[in-house]
Amino acid sequence: MHRARVVLQASSKIGNSERFASWLIKNPQAVAMTINANRLKSSTAAEPFLNGSSSAYVETMYNNWLTDPNSVHASWDAFFRNATNGAQPGVAYTPPPNLAPYAKNEVPLTSLIPASGGMPSIASGSPINEKIIDDHLAVQAIIRSYQIRGHHIAKLDPLEIANFNTAEKNPREVIYNSYRFDEADMDRVFKLPSTTFIGEKEKALPLREILNRLEQAYCNNIGIEFMFINSLEQCNWIRQRMEPPNVTKMSNDQKRLILARLSRSAGFENFLAKKWSSEKRFGLEGCEILIPAMKQVIDTSTKLGVESIIMGMPHRGRLNVLANVCRKPLHQLFTQFAGLEAEDDGSGDVKYHLGTYIERLNRVTNKNIRLAVCANPSHLEAVDPVVQGKTRAEQFYRGDNEGKKVMSILLHGDAAFAGQGVVFETMHLSDLPAYTTHGTIHIVANNQIGFTTDPRHSRSSAYCTDVARVVNAPIFHVNSDNPEAVMHVCNVAAEWRATFHKDVVIDIVSYRRNGHNEVDEPMFTQPLMYQKIRKTKPVLEIYADRLIKEGVVTAEEVKDVKDKYEKICEDAYNQAKQETHIKYKDWLDSPWSGFFEGKDPLKMSPTGVVEETLVHIGKRFSSPPPNAAEFEIHKGLLRILKARMEMVEKRTVDWALAEAMAFGSLLKEGIHVRLSGEDVERGTFSHRHHVLHHQKVDKATYCALAHLYPDQAPYTVCNSSLSEYGVLGFEVGYSVTNPNALVLWEAQFGDFNNVAQCIIDQFISSGQAKWVRQSGIVLLQPHGMEGMGPEHSSARLERFLQMSADDPDYMPPESPDYEVRQLHDCNWIVANCSTPASLFHILRRQIALPFRKPLILMTPKSLLRHPECKSSFDEMAEGTTFKRVLPEEGPASENPDKVRKVAFCSGRVYYDLLKERRDRGLEKDIAIVRLEQISPFPYDQLKSEISKYPNAQLVWSQEEHKNMGSWSYVEPRFRTLLRNQKQISYNGRATAASPATGSKAAHNKELKNLLDEFCVL
Ligand SMILES: Cc1ncc(C[n+]2csc(CCOP(=O)(O)OP(=O)(O)O)c2C)c(N)n1
Ligand SMILES: [Mg+2]
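A: This is the predicted complex of the input protein with magnesium ion.
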């Protein structure tokens, strides 16, 4: 393949600070050019940067020409023919035989001929100097190279210590590859390709100007990564906003606004430092520009129609964001430093984890805006999916299907953004139909350090933002010391989100002036960096000086703004001193207006429903789509639907039907239901089948539960990405947005909840206690020892029970509202139901409660098809309720005095016990009592069960190993209940390290032992 190539004889080391043009002509070797003698044979590999459209274009043409010379334009045909025939440099080209107009982006070679300047002139029919083609291609390639790699040499780091691009020794050299032009070339005019906007209205520019403009756009204080985006429209959109000269120029008013915001941002940190010098606050010093940046994103987004913004952020600068972005009353913030007791319930959280919700007028746009910062745990980035779920939910309830009114902003630290896997999981939700929030603006407060660790030890990627590349998000790196560049990038990011509804990243490259927190000594570990920081002026000073020099503000004005804010802080400080208590409620991020008002906090609505409703839902759920004639369903499914219909006719339900009836009846009552998780539409165990697929037409589906009643609430059932941490976090966020929804996450197998442990511990178990924020989320956790090996048997019931906050030594006094009172006081509900009716009621009870509590529900696998695991409509009809305890109802209950053993159990083991007792003819001797709800512990109902059987020994039967399952939770509570008058013993597997054996034989043996022991009287 012939490739025109100009080779630099020797390369030289070029300093980053040198301007391209001056560097070029300063370098004596640059003018020494030779034409590659072997140009016909030069390989593609030897020209790594020539992978742009121009070189590819010539290559493709050449290859086409090789197979069919008529397939290329006649001028290229002539050129390739001459060149391959060994024409000397500059004579291979002959002008085209006709003068047909050139297509867009096609280069008329004659236009490249310089009017003068030592280049050979061309007369019609004479060969053209090949250098003209070479140079033209070189210019195109250089433009493209700037677009791809300009960020490598952009001046992004205010400290000038970063080495963002470790892969390339001399990135500038890579941008130009081996191309060099001499001084005379600099004034030659080159046609600009359609993929650049540096010319604005100009179609051609002198080379010098081309290079200067590219330098300005790509190598100044903004570095853009976007050329990996596989949409030409989107790439052009970015080029259009970043390439024209002076795009970052601001008006004087805008400059003054930036300065004022910067002054507040810095003033806030200074004030805290002054008043509470040794208190941890994770100050923003070094990245104060974050506040004006966020405000700019919000201003532009509001202008573009956004009305509500949900934010998630880590510790760094959080108080500043609450004060200056959300305008949280300053005195409320300052009371957090005062060590006051709380007025309301809960255990609270440290000040830099608290959330807030505020509705206010945006003064710049004069529009009302709602801002929420989600409360978060210390676990960095864990809040990301929660914010997304909350955003999605708000969009859903507003009918904002394109994300035009509600959006999210996620803030990140550089180390956490690169290090935490949940960032990746959250990014991958960004474009999924049931999870997208239509674009998130990510802002990285990149202080180039994580606690005490340098980037070179904390990530393997060049930038901390590389994770965003997987979703084709453009990434804008920007030097925090150039506030106007930062604001420009913020505007572009907000516009990008509003235009394409896709994620975008702003990486504010800054530094951390103090230690990780205010009591840390950074010189222990980063001595050189901190020597540099000590010599670096704060950005406020840099920018104020610049604006004073430009005559935009006076020094007095700068001082005035600063003093005024200090006075505001001082007044708030004095006001805070008057406070005697703090209120956790002041920090709620998701208020449920109208939900609690006027409700009896201990009154539950009924959960039973009229039979007509059960029949209606049952029939719809068991029927093919109304257009069944055209909608071809899989034959196996037709059989399942038929079996369902038979159950409805017999007034019975299995697990799947009971679940559908719970959902359907709630939908009828106007409660939105959302079921999310891996493969939930069909169900891991192929039992659910909520979405029927047309066997012949792609994407043609039918969901009966979405079409039960004309005025029902919407039903969402969605297969998620293969993520637990991310997706469960998302659903938690969704669930806290509106109490009138049943939001469920199903684990594929219960043990996969391990991967979401952070969400379970930090948000679900403790969310209300820390942040007064309730959630009624339901976790469906397939659980059961069925010989499937260690990883598909246990949902780790014991862990959930261990985190239940009820005191094992305290039995609440009996009262008529015992159940609801216990539920009110608990942190969550843990249950292992054994009947479809229990499932039906417990799901409905989530909504019947006058408050919201998370429900952790162990769900069955083999019971889904167990002939005995059925319930009658009678157990779900009007007037029926959830039974926390299912008493013995067989022969043993008729002669309780004769009963010699009462086995308490929960979940599927009941059916094993039942069979064994029947097989051994012990139905009069052993009573089996089921705990359908394990926590809160149903003391009241168990008490009456125990007293029913005065002569019986008591055992707790479980299929899990002794150090797992419910035993360690129920044992001390039974002890409290029995008051040492009686003992309860353990019947079950021995202790183990692994949740279940991998050997079927060992499994069967263990089960046999368990059942043998159960039958010992
Ligand atoms: C998941 C998790 N791991 C570790 C920590 C402990 N930790 C708190 S801040 C921090 C450094 C964070 O660095 P970076 O993300 O760059 O934010 P910065 O503090 O620099 O703003 C670490 C390791 C944590 N809070 N969460
Ligand atoms: Mg950092």
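Confidence is low (pLDDT under 50) at residues 1-55, 93-109, 115-127. The chain has 34 helices and 30 strands.
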